[in-house]
Amino acid sequence: MDKTNQQVQISPVEDLMREHGLLHRILLIYKDIIDRMTVSDIYTPEPIYSCIRESTIIVKRFIIEYHQVLEQDYVFPILSQHEKYKQLIQILLTQHEAAKCATDEILTILGSELKRIKIYQKRLLQLMSEFIQMYEPHSAREDTVIFPAFHQLTPPDTFRALGEKFEDIEEQKFGENGFQNVLEHVTQIEKSLAIYDLNQFTLKCR
């Protein structure tokens, strides 16, 4: 990690929550694609399938194999020591496994030839929809219950050290500016689908 360019160290909670933000942008990509494929017949399969594939690879590498591992290795063990959080932690762990299972199945379908993907398109849309339905409440519960409790229950020195550790692990896995590079990839997918411009989502209030 290049600490000379980092004026303020990112806390472990901020790190995890911005990763949730990146994931939610992928969920918006999934939602847009589901709408295109179910509401409108005007879409070209190849580029749409490519967007799903690229987005899901990011989910696998950045969320499943990195973000969830941070939670399981450093966050959940602290909360599991307290009876109040044990049941919730178990549910979250079960959902982590479900996310991995769904992600692997999506990539398996997309690894087939185009003709076969079309055959399994209904299943593909179901997996994406169910992933959204699970991960929206999952991440919301972590942001509002798990992460605040993790902050409260972790000694200040340990909390600060974990912030640096998370950044170091991120750099080891994704290189310098790893998060920004992954975010830029998500941005490019958004632009290819014409959903990057935030203003297009502004409510038209009379």
UniProtKB/TrEMBL annotation:
Q: Which GO terms describe its cellular component?
A: plasma membrane
Highest rank taxon of the organism:
Bacteria
Enumerate the spans annotated as Hemerythrin-like domain: 12-149
- What is this protein's record name? Hemerythrin-like domain-containing protein
